[in-house]
């Protein structure tokens, strides 16, 4: 990584000095985001707030675009690891991913016009609903018990991919968690199988958003490179951890992470920090 380029970035962004400490903090957040995203999804809820804190003068489009650049490397690493070790059914995963890609392109155009102030309230409501449902249904996602098959099953997966793809293109944080939750809650997958399929769809949503953001010049490439390297490593480690420890571990991490995000975002909205 070109240190001179990193040092020159703050001037272009109008932000504070991009010190080695700031670089390390952003990289650490990206590694954690990659790990969380690979295990259960929702890494953007770690990474995007870190970018907001590090670059307060960056535009929403810059933050979303740079977050996507880092995230796609993490989801790529996790997708490959899950595919090799879990063998998700591509007859469901690929149509869902195509729909997610299309949805994310549309969502990205919406995201260009969303104010920063709208991010947290929307995400908080979604997290509370998802977290409460998972917490009060302890059997959810422990085993695979598919509710439908054939066209109905694939069609539901495609609808899930498209709707969450639009959300990911427009906002993004929590997308992986919402994909996992939808696959578990609506289609009946165990958490581990759901995570494997969610990574394929999440890769597609990241790619779809970048299809819009990158040509528009919204990506902060140097910062994105730092995020990408850290996310890649975090995604690899996280996927191997999830595969080794199984669905019960993934469910536990899911509840802990969602709860932490609710406290973090809720506290911020209430002015606690």
Automatic annotation (TrEMBL):
InterPro entries attached to this UniProt entry: TM_pro_TauE-like (IPR002781), TSUP (IPR052017)
Chief location of this protein within or outside the cell: membrane
Protein keywords: Cell membrane, Membrane, Transmembrane, Transmembrane helix, Transport
Membrane topology category: Multi-pass membrane protein
Protein location: Cell membrane
GO cellular component entries: plasma membrane
TM annotation in the entry: 38-58, 93-112, 118-136, 157-190, 219-237, 249-270
Protein family (similarity comment): Belongs to the 4-toluene sulfonate uptake permease (TSUP) (TC 2.A.102) family.
Name under which the protein is recorded: Probable membrane transporter protein
Organism: Phycicoccus elongatus Lp2
